[in-house]
Specification:
Elements lengths: L1 E2 L5 H9 L3 E4 L9 H12 L6 E7 L1 H4 L4 E2 L4 E3 L8 E2 L7 E6 L1 H12 L1 E3 L15 E7 L15 E4 L1 H6 L8 E3 L1 H4 L4 H10 L6 H15 L5 E5 L4 H11 L8 H12 L4 H13 L9 H11 L14 H9 L1 H17 L13 H11 L12 H16 L8 H15 L6 H10 L8 H8 L6 H10 L9 E5 L8 H5 L12 H11 L5 E5 H7 L4 H8 L3 H10 L13 H19 L18 H6 L6
Parallel strand pairs: 2-7, 3-12, 5-8
Antiparallel strand pairs: 1-12, 2-4, 3-7, 4-6, 8-9, 9-10, 9-11, 13-14
Helix pairs in contact: 1-4, 2-4, 10-12, 12-14, 12-15, 14-15, 15-17, 16-20, 17-18
Length: 615
């Protein structure tokens, strides 16, 4: 490995333009935020080093064994986040970047391209929420006071932003791209004249300083590897990329798959992830979850994040079965959506993996989601999924070990139905029982409005709810009547406050807790609004029989609170009813493994090597 002659930023970007400097398929995609780009340019202006770079000279005979990508220039968080695939002639050598892609791409975007990110409060699925922005340098003043220690005022702006500041004397914006487009001093002089800053010493000094940093200072230092052994290059890549933004499971797996698949692995995986995340009310599954699901369905023995598992044989299994696996994942995500889950209520993405494996093992199609014949099996699957999301720690440490155990149970016992009893027994043996304890009951009753686990709990406790339709988490006693201001307005006959500050705090603490929550159909919830529950119930269900049935279904006391004074009593009665229901509906399907030999539980070394999934 040798050290190359340092080069200027402009020289490196021209090589990117000419596709002489490219990215190998093992590189992750661009992930930097606008603030990180601005920090790089601030460093460039101050003459600070921006780090060294590692490149790989790829000879013609090696070019054909790899896929390559171009650098991102016009980045859009909406619809252009993936590097462009490029075809490299096999009769010439190229230089591929192994370390430094994020910094070089940031320089490329700042000096040659655009960055489109979502407006604050904009619609995530609308293109107009992502206006095109170019990097600008303020020639009128330095950066405002900031926590990042930035000296120079760089900012990504739309044309509308620039026009809006035309009359602001503290703002004079220079598009940074015009610095790159001025390769010599004659062009620099023209640039100063164009922005009428030639006679402004401070502004012209800023322009000249950035121009010098881009075109004259050889600030980029490259180390180059010329060995054509791909295994060696891969090892170097893994080592140098373990110090910054750590490679995720999917980064390495997808990179190697991209290099080894005959088709375009990156496009296949990205397309599938995007499609899955658009299911129902939307999810946010990562490539990690989807690719680990693939390894599960391909029956790869070890699904851990270890380089030795990323063999050509394993990648071939994934590619050969990708279409069938994709279909199974689509059905599995559809089932999770049918269970009422979405990004906001799915507390652990990893629950998808065993569901997808079950679907794949049985060869189920979309009819399984609706068929009356499969209703009982769907209910068993639904109950298990939701209960596993309620109990903390199920999808945390020891994940890969648990997944392999579940796979073995499904392979042996899941040919015709979801083997819930056997699965829960295997979970118990791993120290992850779906058992009801006093601690779990307290944990559930203390769940709050707006938390992800709250919907899953309510869906389990009230199985009459058809979660294929839209349901809202609703306050039984209206939250607006338990508002701090509303409670302070309550007075005694003599005009004194009826509630002390401590009593108000206590009521506010109880307001959003689970005993005051229920699931109502969306339109019904909107109609209920802030009505007193007893009054709403009488109007919505005129028949005494229907009212009684509603109260029974929702584990509500026979009398609902008519005022704040009755709220505490209601809260206590509802808590008792929910406690009984929790014990009845969350009852584990497996025996107590209390006599299990500890050595049969999770191996510590393996647990420490596995990733955590958020509860």
């Amino acid at each position: 490995m040798g050290h190359k002659e340092p080069m200027t930023i402009a020289s490196a970007l021209r090589q990117i333009q000419d596709r002489k400097l490219i990215l190998p398929a093992i590189q992750r995609e661009y992930v930097w935020k606008p603030s990180q780009i601005i920090r790089v340019f601030d460093s460039v202006m101050r003459g600070y080093p921006v780090g060294s770079f590692l490149s790989w000279k790829v000879m013609p005979e090696t070019v054909s064994q790899f896929k390559f990508y171009g650098f991102m220039t016009e980045y859009s968080a909406f619809d252009n986040r993936h590097n462009p695939v490029i075809d490299i002639p096999t009769d010439r050598e190229v230089v591929a970047i192994l370390d430094g892609q994020q910094r070089l791409t940031s320089l490329n975007i700042g000096l040659r391209g655009t960055y489109a990110y979502k407006n604050h409060g904009g619609w995530a699925n609308k293109s107009w929420s992502y206006p095109e922005r170019r990097l600008h340098l303020n020639l009128a003043s330095e950066a405002p006071e900031n926590e990042l220690g930035l000296k120079y005022h760089f900012q990504f702006l739309t044309k509308k932003d620039v026009d809006a500041s035309a009359d602001d004397d503290s703002k004079k914006w220079l598009p940074v791209s015009e610095i790159f487009d001025a390769p010599d001093t004659a062009k620099l002089i023209q640039l100063l004249a164009k922005y009428e800053v030639g006679n402004d010493p401070k502004a012209s000094a800023l322009v000249s300083k950035l121009w010098e940093a881009v075109h004259k200072t050889a600030s980029l230092h490259f180390y180059e590897e010329d060995d054509q052994d791909i295994e060696r290059v891969l090892d170097i890549f893994v080592r140098v990329n373990s110090g910054g933004t750590v490679l995720s499971y999917s980064d390495l797996l997808l990179s190697i798959a991209t290099a080894q698949w005959e088709g375009d692995a990156r496009a296949a995986v990205h397309g599938l992830v995007d499609a899955l995340n658009q299911t129902g009310n939307g999810f946010n599954f990562s490539r990690d979850t989807i690719l680990k699901s693939g390894l599960m369905m391909a029956d790869v023995g070890d699904i851990g994040f270890k380089v030795k598992n990323f063999t050509t044989a394993n990648m071939s299994k994934l590619e050969a079965n990708w279409d069938a696996m994709s279909k199974s994942l689509q059905i599995a995500v559809g089932l999770l959506s049918d269970f009422g889950l979405s990004d906001g209520s799915l507390t652990a993405d990893s629950v998808l993996i065993p569901v997808a494996y079950y679907v794949h093992h049985r060869g189920l199609d979309h009819s399984y989601r609706q068929s009356p014949k499969s209703r009982e099996d769907r209910e068993a699957l639904r109950s298990w999924v939701l209960r596993s999301l309620i109990v903390r720690g199920i999808w945390g440490s020891g994940l890969d070990t648990l997944l392999r155990d579940l796979r073995e149970v499904i392979k042996k016992q899941g040919a015709s139905a979801f083997p819930v009893v056997e699965i829960e027994r295997a979970m118990s043996l791993r120290g992850k029982p779906l058992a009801v304890t006093d601690a779990l009951v307290d944990d559930i009753l203390n769940l709050s409005y707006g938390k992800a686990r709250t919907f899953a709990v309510l869906a389990v406790l009230f199985p009459h709810v058809d979660t294929r339709h839209q349901f809202h988490v609703d306050h039984v006693f209206p939250a607006s009547l338990l508002d701090r201001k509303a409670l302070r307005r309550q007075k005694n006959e003599d005009g004194t406050a009826r509630l002390s500050p401590e009593e108000i705090d206590d009521l506010l603490e109880l307001r959003d807790r689970l005993p005051n929550l229920e699931l109502l159909p969306g339109l019904e919830n909107i109609g209920k609004s802030a009505k007193i529950p007893e009054e709403w119930l009488a109007a919505e269900y005129p028949s005494a029989h229907d009212r009684s049935a509603f109260l029974e279904r929702n584990a509500l006391p026979l009398s609902l609170p008519l005022s704040v004074d009755e709220y505490r009593k209601f809260f206590g009665e509802r808590s008792a009813k929910l406690t009984t229901r929790i014990h009845n509906l969350l009852k584990s399907q497996s025996p107590d493994p209390s006599n299990t030999n500890a050595s049969e539980l999770v191996d510590l070394d393996e647990e420490l090597s596995e990733g955590d999934d958020s509860d």
